[in-house]
Amino acid sequence: MKVAVVILNWNGKALLERFLPSIVAYSKGTSIYVVDNASSDSSVDFLKDNYPSIGIVQNATNGGFAKGYNDGLKHIEADIFCLLNSDVEVTENWLEPVLETFENTPEASIVQPKILDLKRREYFEYAGAAGGFIDKLGYPFCRGRIFQALERDEGQYDDIREVFWATGACMFIKNAVFKSLKGFDEDYFAHQEEIDLCWRAKNFGHKVYYVGKSKVYHMGGSTLLNMNPKKTFLNFRNSLYSITKNLPRKKAFPIIFLRLLLDGVAAVRFIFQFKLNHCAAVLRAHLSFYTNFRKVYRKREKANFILKYYSTTSIVWSHFVHQVKNFNILVKD
Question: What is the pLDDT of residues 139-162, one digit of tens each?
Fold first, then answer.
């Protein structure tokens, strides 16, 4: 299998300086590319001067995560793409368990490794942790991370298992599958586009896997911090997009209605936390959803929608009311 490790960059010279050494050292046998999203810093010159063996794809505009990868991957040939954030430190032998999973599990179309926190290396990291899931209302969570509660890595998720979604921080995907799905939905711009991609893949019969013997460390927050209002806007709006696109009509509309009500509760909670910018971000997310609803609805895939897509009924109720912070307590395999 020909593997291409593809890093999306936007004004990230400092990140490239810090994280490329581990990627180059531990990714033998792969091709490494940087897709540059029209950076205005000296990222491209730095690559040309210091890493002449790394391929460079220069996009004309900064179209965010979704369009950036869609445009860049058109110029790269490989059987498997590894989409890797520029703020990820990889480890020795990180590739072998993943590639073995592709070889031994033909139905695996998308795979992610264990994602640990670069700053607290013994803990899982927010973006992906040990594989992603959603609840009945479409709220995402992970093994090792429920909302802001992060578990310590004690080997409890060192397995290989099917999950619902893989993180865009480090996602391996078959080129043929990426093309068949027409890539990421560019209307998402950034955040939760990988959940939508995996959901669409599963609707078409593909499977997503987590491989715990492969691990990387993610710094996180390099583009938008978790509590940036723009991230709040994108997460709230894009989650509604995914429900609209990927559920049968009879399920989608009641869930959208409930989500809008719960988003209103979240907005009120932001007010009591004196986070007025985040309250405004939720309102803007709803306005954007209403404005773009017809466009998003027309994207619904002509596929057999999977009915058992969720792992628990309500992650919100379990976490905030019953104080569940551990995946193994929440979901019994």
Answer: 999 999 999 999 999 999 999 999
Tens-digit pLDDT profile for residues 299-331: 987 767 888 899 999 999 999 999 999 999 988
Rounded to whole angstroms, how far apart are CA atoms 206 and 199? 9
Residue 5 confidence (pLDDT): 98
How far does Cα 293 stand from its chain's mean position? 23
Domain boundaries, the chain: 3-218, 229-330
Q: Are the CB atoms for 177 and 201 separated by under 8 Å?
A: yes
Task: Give the integer Cα–Cα distance in Å for 117 and 45.
Answer: 30
Residues 133, 164 contacting (CB under 8 angstroms): yes
CA atoms in the 13 A half-sphere facing the CB of 8: 27
Where are the strands (E) in 55-206, listed by range?
Answer: 55-59, 80-84, 88-90, 108-117, 132-134, 140-142, 145-146, 149-150, 160-163, 170-174
pLDDT at 258: 97
Residues 76 and 6: their CA atoms lie apart, in Å, by 9
| Measured distance CA(58)–CA(36) in Å, rounded | 5
* CATH T-level fold of 3-218: Spore Coat Polysaccharide Biosynthesis Protein SpsA; Chain A (3.90.550)
Q: Are 92 and 200 in contact (CB under 8 A)?
A: no
Residues 6+ apart with CB under 8 A from 274: none
pTM score above 0.85: yes
**Gap between the Cα atoms of 4 and 17, Å rounded:** 20
